[in-house]
Amino acid sequence: MQASLDIELAGQPVRLLADRAMFWPAQSLLLIADLHLGKGEALRRGGIAVPRGGTRDDLERLQALLAATGARELCVLGDFLHGAGSGGAWQEQWQAWREQHASLPIIVVAGNHDRHLQGCASDWHLDLVAEGLRRGPFELRHVPGDGTGHVIAGHVHPRVRYPGLPGRWPTFWLRTGLTVLPAFSRFTGGVEPVLRAGDRQVACLGGLVAALPPG
């Protein structure tokens, strides 16, 4: 096990990071999926008792990844938000974080939870784009699907059981032409993907990554 794993996708060296992110060195681009800002507060408003501090924790992890990789650009592969686009302590935390990274370009591929960003993404200092943004050999999406390049997506929140460890762990799910990132937010559930022959998974195990045998 190690803190990251260097692999090649569509002829490009990329790095899978234990904290649920992918780094593309050639473009100095950090990619994450399913940030779900404000999810805890949205659930509490609905009467569900959940712990506080999830947004702060996720933003601190994101800041550490930017510092460690030296990334000059961030891409969120959908579900940047969870719930309303205004109000709550989480928005103040985000705005403070954004001020600290005011020069960082941030692209958000619109996900199913991001409807409240429509028309106000510029107020958040974000570049909101539709599914299928092409960057080199990659097609950046929220929902996995067929593309004209190697698709990198999120949405599924893939998880896997790792031999000798209890529970299910976030995982990168890789198959020919498609890479699905684990949900970045720790405050998410997930599903075990149905594997095809040759599919690979790289599990995120609390600060380490480990490749599982191909499906």
Task: Describe the protein.
By secondary structure, this protein is α/β, with parallel strands linked by helices. The chain is 16% helix and 28% strand. It is built from 3 helices and 15 strands. The chain has helices at 39-45, 54-69, 89-100, and strands at residues 4-9, 12-17, 21-24, 29-32, 73-76, 106-109, 127-129, 133-135, 138-140, 150-153, 159-160, 169-175, 178-180, 200-204, 209-211. The strands form 2 sheets. Strands 8, 9, 10, 11, 12, 13, 14 and 15 form an 8-stranded mixed sheet that branches. Strands 1-2-3-4-5-6-7 form a 7-stranded mixed sheet, covered by helices on one side. The relative contact order is 0.19. Mean pLDDT is 88; it is low at 43-53.
- Mean pLDDT across all amino acids: 88
Task: Give the fraction of residues assigned to helices.
Answer: 10-25%
CATH fold name: Purple Acid Phosphatase, chain A, domain 2
What CATH architecture would you give?
4-Layer Sandwich
What would you call the shape?
A: globular
Count of helical segments?
3
Gap from first CA to last CA: 19 Å
Strand content: 25-35%
Over all CA atoms, what is the radius of gyration? 16 Å
Determine the structural class based on helices, strands and strand pairing: alpha/beta
Uncertain parts: 43-53
Write the element-wise H/E pattern from the N-terminal end onward.
EEEEHHEHEEEEEEEEEE
CATH class: Alpha Beta
